Backbone:
């Protein structure tokens, strides 16, 4: 499973080029060890404290067609009716989207578009601030207090804009604001900026998906610079690293909601195993987008995978899944000798 992991997890940006390859190897080794001893990985990590793990939805179901409040409300209505029964949804707003390009006079800067995401950053105009608030209010009107609403915001906000937005959203009780200052494709963490925001608002502040290794989380956690961290097992260094970070965060009253939107089917299996073992500061993990073709490539995941917003933790060895070589062979180019030399020998 090692090569598939490496191909699936190598991404660009931030700390990720290093973390992805190391994480892939670490996760593959846990899988090998679990299958060698006939034990699920969660037992090798110290044992589970929950029989099912809560997940949250970012990219499953119809995304907003545009960036108006009506677009967000319509997407939320459709996502509420998904068969998986998600109870937490995360939507992108602000600099995490094309909002700065589409909405005129959104921020004090020249809007840019290019081959890499998150090019725009700066200070919100009053119009930009009010537009985000209208979109969040539209989401809350649909979701009410029965569903959790998290917001992926940046990176890109000025410190002042981030704090103004967080304060303005306090009455709406959103679950968190993610990556306001730094985040995707950012090789640093801006601890002091995050601390200034989180210590001056009751709106929970979240970051961490881009960080590689526990050292990148140390100052964020010890300074209570954020309320929630979101390490990705496929970027942070693997499952043991994520568990160590979760336990360290728990000692400091910091919550954890692991990232995982691009991790695919193997990433989902890994997240299930490690999240079953995390302390009670665990909220939910971000449900990876699982394409139908990916499901065919492995055997062992529950079907349906998500039920009422949770995934069952099974007792199968290793990560609980096994590569379907016959299904994979159908999708390989004729000259690809992956199965011949990467597995069978």
Residues:
């Amino acid at each position: 499973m090692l090569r598939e992991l490496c191909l699936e997890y190598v991404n660009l940006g931030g700390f990720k080029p290093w973390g992805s390859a190391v994480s892939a190897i670490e996760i593959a080794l846990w899988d090998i060890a679990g299958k060698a001893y006939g034990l699920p990985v969660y037992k090798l990590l110290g044992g589970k404290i929950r029989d099912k793990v809560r997940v949250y939805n970012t990219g499953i179901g119809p995304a907003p067609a545009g960036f108006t409040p009506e677009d967000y409300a319509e997407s939320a209505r459709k996502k509420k009716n998904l068969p998986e029964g998600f109870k937490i949804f995360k939507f992108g707003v602000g600099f995490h989207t094309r909002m700065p390009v589409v909405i005129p006079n959104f921020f004090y800067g020249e809007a840019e578009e290019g081959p890499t995401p998150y090019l725009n950053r700066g200070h919100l105009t009053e119009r930009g601030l009010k537009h985000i608030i209208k979109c969040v209010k539209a989401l809350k009107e649909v979701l009410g207090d029965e569903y959790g609403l998290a917001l992926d915001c940046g990176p890109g906000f000025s410190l002042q804009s981030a704090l103004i937005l967080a304060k303005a959203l306090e009455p709406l009780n959103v679950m968190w604001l993610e990556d306001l200052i730094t985040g995707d494709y950012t090789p640093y963490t801006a601890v002091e900026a995050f601390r200034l925001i989180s210590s001056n608002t009751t709106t929970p502040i979240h970051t961490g998906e881009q960080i590689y290794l526990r050292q990148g989380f140390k100052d964020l956690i010890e300074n209570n610079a954020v309320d929630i961290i979101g390490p990705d097992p496929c970027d942070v260094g693997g499952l043991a690293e994520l568990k160590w970070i979760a336990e360290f965060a728990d000692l400091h009253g910091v919550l954890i909601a692991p990232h995982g939107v691009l991790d695919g089917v193997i990433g989902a299996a890994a997240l299930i195993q490690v999240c079953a073992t995390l302390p009670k500061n665990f909220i939910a993990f971000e449900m990876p987008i699982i394409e139908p073709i990916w499901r065919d490539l492995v055997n062992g995941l529950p079907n349906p995978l998500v039920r009422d917003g949770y995934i069952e933790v099974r007792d199968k060895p290793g990560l609980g899944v096994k590569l379907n070589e016959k299904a994979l062979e159908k999708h390989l180019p004729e000259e690809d000798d992956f199965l011949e030399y990467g597995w069978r020998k």
Q: What stands out?
A: The CA atoms of residues 116 and 240 lie 31 Å apart. The radius of gyration is 20 Å.
